[in-house]
Amino acid sequence: MDNSTIVNVINNVHKMLENRGFDITKVNRNPPTAHMNNLIKLFRDKKNTLDIMIENTNRDKPDFGKKAYVHFIYNMRNEKSNKEFEDLYDVVTKANNMMERDHIIIVVFSELTEKHRSLESEFSNLTLFSYKNLMFNLVDHQFVPKHESLTAAEKIKLLSDFMITDYNKLPLISKYDPVCRYYNFKIGDVLRITRPSDANMTHVMYRHVQFLD
């Protein structure tokens, strides 16, 4: 794997963090090439990390104090076990006082299995990605419509507007849907999906996030 692949993945992680609502203005997104190549060499040799830690610091925003931690793994110790991920999750959570609303993201430069991804059902603020899923920015694709999670007030209004008493009356979307994983939408979230249609109109639909087979 060449360095440009790793750099591309890191750049798309930056975009994903920004799309998840994190302030990445303090992240050095364009380090000198020689410096970046040296960091990657140390990372490959397990002498340094490429980890990213972000905390939203704008007190005027509702997500003030919300944190994200991204950990990159070049080679897994045991590809058949989840223990490395479980230990890492525990260390990151305790070291950074991570709460349920915070995001922990693990990016692995190899393949992941369904067993690995099953940890996302155990830890709601965790998402695991193989580097292959971050070679491009998913939500930039022209055929991926805009997805937004409704606020608490918007969810209440939706019940009234649709004359329903239960969000399960809405069509469902899987927690493991690629877009849901990209944003780390949670079980119980209600999404507004806006898709362009003919005659310069937009089509709006709503989906309830649940675990689906």
Low-confidence region ranges: none
Average pLDDT, all residues: 93
Straight-line N-to-C gap: 34 Å
Identify the strand order in the major beta sheet.
Answer: 1-2-3-4
Shape: globular
CATH H-level name of the largest domain... which superfamily? Answer: RNA polymerase, Rpb5, N-terminal domain
Oligomeric nature of the chains:
single chain
Q: Give the C-alpha Rg.
A: 19 Å
Number of domains in the coordinates?
Answer: 2
Helix content: 25-40%
Number of helices: 7
Order of helices and strands: HHEEHEHHEEHEHEE
Count of extended strands: 8
CATH fold type of the largest domain? Dna-directed Rna Polymerases I, Ii, And Iii 27 Kd Polypeptide, Chain: A, domain 1
What is the name of the CATH architecture of the largest domain? 3-Layer(aba) Sandwich
CATH class descriptor name of the largest domain? Alpha Beta
Helix-strand makeup class: alpha/beta
Q: What's the story with the biggest beta sheet?
A: 4 strands, mixed
Range of strand content: 15-25%
Structure notes:
The protein has seven helices and eight strands. It is an alpha/beta fold. The radius of gyration is 19 Å and the shape is globular. The model has no long low-confidence stretch (mean pLDDT 93). It is 31% helix and 21% strand. The chain folds into two domains: 3-136, Dna-directed Rna Polymerases I, Ii, And Iii 27 Kd Polypeptide, Chain: A, domain 1 (3-Layer(aba) Sandwich), CATH 3.40.1340; 140-210, RPB5-like RNA polymerase subunit (Eukaryotic RPB6 RNA polymerase subunit). The strands form two sheets. It has a four-stranded mixed sheet, covered by helices on one side. Strands 5-7-8-6 form a four-stranded mixed sheet, with no helix packed on it.
